[in-house]
Every structure is written in structure tokens, then in C-alpha cells.
Design brief:
The protein is mostly beta strands. The protein contains three helices and eleven strands, in the order E-H-H-E-E-E-E-E-E-H-E-E-E-E. Strands 1, 2, 3, 4, 5, 6, 7, 8, 9, 10 and 11 form an eleven-stranded mixed beta sheet that branches. Strand 4 and strand 5 form a beta hairpin. The longest helix has 8 residues.
Length: 204
């Protein structure tokens, strides 16, 4: 597994952070650190790309088809993980938002890993929800983790905030079936680092 490993340090984001309007939470997730506990220590990544899925009216949201065994976690308390499989091969990591009984979640589409050497600090970009889960070794067994407890997987705020001018907005990917809802600019990203400082990462 790639990326910096350290000992456990800061306080996880509390449930109150996730218990707010999903679009607001999605924008504020940018720059937050997503921490994954491994047998070798802590893998630290920074969130740079997310998509919001907001309630049963949102035709791109899984919950638009009703409450099912798959979507049950979305109807529960905010701050839990929602992990599912697409195309029979790629896992996707989401974080549940808003009040109980109102199904909403945020898909983590991209991460950045900062690696320091004696001469430089490089930023490795991990794009795509499937690649995110492969890098973090996330699968269906990670569905339903309470990310506010600081065990296995959680988020930390390290004081970085971004204004609207720093955040790029786009339509969500792969939801053409959702009609007008597919046009919503509910994907929020931070720009990738300059090409000279961007490195590819091996996920094999």
C-alpha cells in the first residue's frame, strides 16, 4: 500500500458536521483528510473530488427507488459509510448526510496523497471512486462504519478551507438516466496540482 503512515493524531469530524444540507457538506469535505487504519499504521489522504446525492427526489440517488436492503444505511444517522459495488467489480465509498430518515450521501470520487522527500513535496492524485476504494482497500465489509468514532476509517479537519473561486463544479458522472437531475452541478472538485508535480500511483 502506498502513502504516508503515521500514528493516530487528531479528532474525527463529529456527527454534527454530516448532519447538515448535503451540498454544504460536500463543498466543505474538500480539503478534509480521510484516514484509513491499516495493519501498518494510518494511511492519510486529502479529499479533492466529491459528488452529492440528495434525497428521494434526486433521480440519480439510489434512494429514489425506495428503501431497500442496499440503501437502508442512507436512511440512518449521518456520518456512516455507504459502500456499494458497481459493474460487478468497483466499490464506491459514500458518507451519509442529513437527518435520519432522509436518504442522502456524498460519493468520494478523488483523493490526493502528499509525500515528502528531502528535496520536494509531491502530490499524487487518485481519480475515480473505484480507484479510491482500491487504494484504501475498501469493500462491502466497510459498509456501515461510523466515521465519527475514529476507528478503521474517519475524517479530520486540519484547518484548510476553500472559497468558491477555488472549487470547480460539474454535472455528476454516469447518471444520464436521471433526466434533468443529471444536469445538476453537484460534483465539486479542487483543481489537480500542476503536471510537473503530479505523479501516477500504482494500484496493483
Amino acid at each position: 500500500m502506498n502513502g504516508p503512515m503515521t500514528e493516530k493524531s487528531l479528532v474525527p469530524l463529529p456527527r454534527a458536521f454530516f448532519d447538515r444540507p448535503t451540498l454544504k457538506v460536500a463543498k466543505e469535505l474538500l480539503g478534509k483528510y480521510l484516514i484509513r487504519e491499516t495493519s501498518s499504521g494510518l494511511l492519510q489522504t486529502r479529499i479533492v473530488d466529491v459528488e452529492a446525492y440528495v434525497g428521494p427526489e434526486d433521480k440519480a440517488c439510489h434512494a429514489s427507488k425506495g428503501r431497500t436492503k442496499r440503501t437502508e444505511i442512507m436512511f440512518g444517522p449521518p456520518g456512516f459509510t455507504y459502500v456499494y459495488l458497481i459493474y460487478g467489480m468497483y466499490y464506491c465509498l459514500n458518507l451519509v448526510t442529513e437527518r435520519e430518515e432522509y436518504p442522502a450521501a456524498i460519493l468520494i470520487r478523488g483523493l490526493e496523497v502528499h509525500q515528502e522527500t528531502d528535496a520536494d513535496v509531491s502530490a499524487t492524485r487518485i481519480d475515480g471512486p473505484g480507484r479510491v476504494c482500491r487504494f484504501l482497500n475498501i469493500d462491502r465489509t466497510d459498509n456501515g462504519i461510523d466515521a465519527t468514532l475514529g476507528t478503521t476509517l474517519w475524517l479530520e479537519d486540519r484547518g484548510q478551507t476553500y472559497s468558491k473561486k477555488h472549487i470547480q463544479t460539474f454535472p455528476r458522472i454516469g447518471v444520464d438516466y436521471a433526466g434533468e437531475w443529471a444536469k445538476k452541478l453537484w460534483r465539486f472538485c479542487l483543481p489537480a496540482p500542476p503536471a510537473s508535480r503530479k505523479r501516477k500511483i500504482s494500484l496493483r
